[in-house]
Design brief:
The chain is mainly beta and 93 residues long. The protein has one domain. 6% of the residues lie in helices and 35% in strands. It has one helix and seven strands; from the N terminus they run βββββββα. The strands form two sheets. Strands 1, 2, 3, 6 and 7 form a five-stranded antiparallel beta sheet that branches. It has a two-stranded antiparallel sheet with strand order 4-5. It binds zinc ion (ZN).
Length: 93
C-alpha cells in the first residue's frame, strides 16, 4: 500500500481532496444547484488501481509498479463542503 497523504480523505477505493475557491466566477454548487458562490470548494477525486509493472515515460521518469492513484474516470465537483462530502462514493447518504 502507498503511504497515506494527510491532505486526502480516504473512502474505500477512492480519495478526496477539498480546496476552498477564492474569487472564482463559477455557477454555484454542482451538487444541490444553489447559485450562491460564497463558501464554495472544489473536490478532487482519485481512484486506486494496481499497476502491474513499471512504466518508463518519455522523459525517463519511472512509475513504479504497485498501488497508484489515478484521476482517470474520476470527477471533480464544485460546491458546498457538506454537499461534496455527501457526493463521495461509498458514503451513506
Ligand atoms: Zn450545495
Amino acid at each position: 500500500m502507498t503511504k497515506k497523504d494527510k491532505s486526502w480523505n480516504y473512502c474505500g477505493n477512492y480519495r478526496y481532496k477539498l480546496q476552498k475557491l477564492f474569487g472564482w466566477t463559477i455557477k454555484g454548487c454542482e451538487v444541490c444547484g444553489d447559485k450562491n458562490n460564497e463558501d464554495v470548494y472544489i473536490q478532487t477525486e482519485e481512484r486506486k488501481y494496481f499497476l502491474q509493472k513499471d512504466i518508463v515515460l518519455k522523459n525517463d521518469t519511472i512509475i513504479k509498479a504497485g498501488w497508484r492513484w489515478t484521476r482517470h474516470g474520476c470527477i471533480s465537483l464544485y460546491g458546498h463542503k457538506e454537499c461534496l462530502i455527501k457526493a463521495r462514493k461509498g458514503v451513506t447518504k
